[in-house]
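Suppose a colleague, Dr. K., hands you the sequence of a protein chain of 243 amino acids and asks what its three-dimensional shape might be. Before reaching for any lab equipment, you can write down a predicted structure in token form. Begin with the sequence itself:
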Amino acid sequence: MDKAVKREPIGADRYIFVSKNHGFGTDAVLLADFAKAKKSDIMADLGTGCGIIPFLMLRDGNLKSAVGVDIAREATELAEKTANAEKFGNFCAVNSDICDLKGKISFGDKTLVTCNPPYKAAGAGIKAKSGARLTARQETACTLEDIVSVSSKLLTSGGRLCMCQRPERLGELITLMSKYKTEPKRLRLVAKCVGEAPWLILLEGRRDGKPGLKIEPTLYLYENGGLSDEMKRIYGPYKEAYL
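The predicted structure, expressed as tokens, is then:
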């Protein structure tokens, strides 16, 4: 095995291959839980990286099929490596720009699309040094509008788009979902602890959905000096792998 590639546990006897450029953080784990995948879902994960979001869902026995799309070949090779090793035969990885997917994956049949997108617009914030990290952090390969536009084409009517983003871009994200006929239906704020401002938002839009946004209780990562009860549930199989 390439020394730059590591095998990390994500549950009891379940592993995912990661690298320095393509790992995952708490936001991806939260998004996978928020999306509430079903066994019948036909899913696409845009900017999949190492594939953590679909693999967490597959670990739990969900998804009829899943495709992970990433512009970085290293990322899709990692995802394919995990799918083969873990025998996730209903997963495939596609190395492509999300704006150039015609003929590579099917459109209009996805019941679930997820994306943990770059949080900063191109040129905003501190610029990452490596190409892979720059693509992950800033909109150099695609914009937020590209993601929502492509997702709306991938989704079947009634299909769901689930994304995470920084709170300061919530208004922009809601506007884009509405523009591309993916009505915002469910919103959750994530804060580190009670009394702190949210650092992340989780938003679900429904293709051709009717207006009506449900705001769920804020998710707190920590309570009483340790992980909150809800975070213990979310992290359950992942944390147990280290015990």
